[in-house]
């Protein structure tokens, strides 16, 4: 089977184009459903109520009978399209039934299939990583990674040994040093790493994500802000890399407490699809090595083929590889990959909880990985992305005011651009929905594309036509 036909292979009944029966301001069934839901659940962020039984492939249905081409895909979380038959087979397996009905406490009572489940996930692990620890969400994955970093950092100081001092044991019960040490994770302005307590402390994209939440006083370095197009601004952007790396260097020298690790996204996603060069990321790798810290690559949104490779940071060929790589979203599971045995805490029950992840989701992750590899979907996404990017470049020439700073070249369909302001961006998203396209934003004024890995040229043509139709009215 040719990879070009993968969408038709999975979804022979997929619509040929969007179906819009009701305008966004008159979706009576969806509005009624939201009102009912709001009495039991905070539904203020709901765009529309979906009908997942009728959603298929690259199209998401709503309860009003609309069928939208979905280039947002549950905030980058649907890898293989809605109602993918291969994943439905995985979901119906005896292994999945056991994982759902008798969900095990994996740290104490793993099933006799756990080694196989973990092995399937590791078949698509980032280069250089051969171990995994599982979590429940992207934010949880990052917080688990923080714990691993802090445990490792302290173990390097005391020696990788099992005994703690009496002072450490006594003080930690009072949340005081030395048992509860003052340490930091360095992240970046415009970064998004989750909304929990520690992940919220590392997040720095929108105030709404963390208002009223007590926070660790951790440093935020500046992530490069490039000038576009990249090929016309090589020297300027090189100096920007150097400037930002110097800020990181300075923080390691001047921050009030030791910095145990750096947390960074290969592409800052929620914060605006901000890119940086391989040289910048290698610079971060070098800084961590020099300062005895660890490097965490947050691949929650960029991972699993979205940028044309399985893991976005692999494009940078970092030497040595990152110490930890966190994942979630398209993998339908969560956790972090690693390779150094000393990242495993020196005693059991330190990195631990009742479930230590979710074997049902881990099984699904293995099924997704199998399909991605079988059909070489990262390479296919790269082909489609090149096709789409060229069309968007042509539109940028025609509508430079509304399609600015186009970014994501050579990053498959992980593409974004900026409009003139947030009001115009929000209007654009609404108008695109009325045109049959479910599309998302990021930062204050940007639009981001997050289609599935089975998004093809025929879908790109529909998307571009809708964009031009909308922009022609501005």
Automatic annotation (TrEMBL):
One of its GO terms (biological process) is gamma-aminobutyric acid catabolic process. One of its GO terms (cellular component) is mitochondrion. It comes from the Eukaryota. InterPro entries: 4NH2But_aminotransferase_euk (IPR004631), Aminotrans_3 (IPR005814), Aminotrans_3_PPA_site (IPR049704), PyrdxlP-dep_Trfase (IPR015424), PyrdxlP-dep_Trfase_major (IPR015421), PyrdxlP-dep_Trfase_small (IPR015422). The keyword Transferase applies. PROSITE patterns: AA_TRANSFER_CLASS_3. The keyword Transferase applies. GO terms for molecular function: 4-aminobutyrate:2-oxoglutarate transaminase activity; pyridoxal phosphate binding. It is an enzyme of class 2 (transferase). Its EC number is 2.6.1.19. Its cofactor is pyridoxal 5'-phosphate. It catalyses: 4-aminobutanoate + 2-oxoglutarate = succinate semialdehyde + L-glutamate. Keywords: Aminotransferase, Pyridoxal phosphate, Transferase. Belongs to the class-III pyridoxal-phosphate-dependent aminotransferase family. Homodimer and homotetramer. This is 4-aminobutyrate aminotransferase. It comes from Candida oxycetoniae.
